Amino acid sequence: MTTNHSTATQNSATTAGAPATDAPYAPEHTPRLNWAQHAPEVYRAMVRLDAAAGKGLEPKLRELVKIRASQLNHCAFCLDMHTKDALAAGESVERIVQLSAWEESRHFYTEQEVAALELTEAVTVLTDGFVPDEVYERAARHFDEAALSQLIAAIAVINAWNRFGVTTRAVPGRYTPGQFA
Q1: Which residues of the chain are under the pLDDT cut of 70?
Q2: What is the C-alpha separation between 130 and 20, in angstroms, rounded?
Q3: Which terminus of the chain is more exposed, N or C, with fewer CB under 10 A?
Q4: Which helix (H) or strand (E) holds 51?
Q5: pLDDT score, position 181
């Protein structure tokens, strides 16, 4: 039996104290393509690259970086996945909620996390075509060269995942923490 995610979400929201509504949620969109099925070697390479990029980075920091890049890239599938993984890793709801406005909520994060978030934005957006020296130097003060290399790799990889997710219209809502581990 297939469960309608919209109905399940509405029912759980109602039971969680949200106001009951007679109006149904909007239907899920249809994914464009299951790219992993049609390009399995690329998918497996991405999984290996993601695992390699995350080595040595603290799990909560890694998830904050993935969430922030996914917010900037509007990747709902990755937001669903990485907020759930962050919660499973012990991250607080409060810090996840504040992440989209981290600059005004700096006091929720360590200086190292702020430097990582700033670098994430610079690498993700690249509005000026480069990462500003002051952003890079701030990150370099909080991470040794090996950790900074891993952080840059993790940022690059989540941006690639986001581009697959957004382009193929991956559907959020069904991921369970650790599902792809």
Answers
A1: 1-21
A2: 48
A3: N
A4: helix 40-54
A5: 74
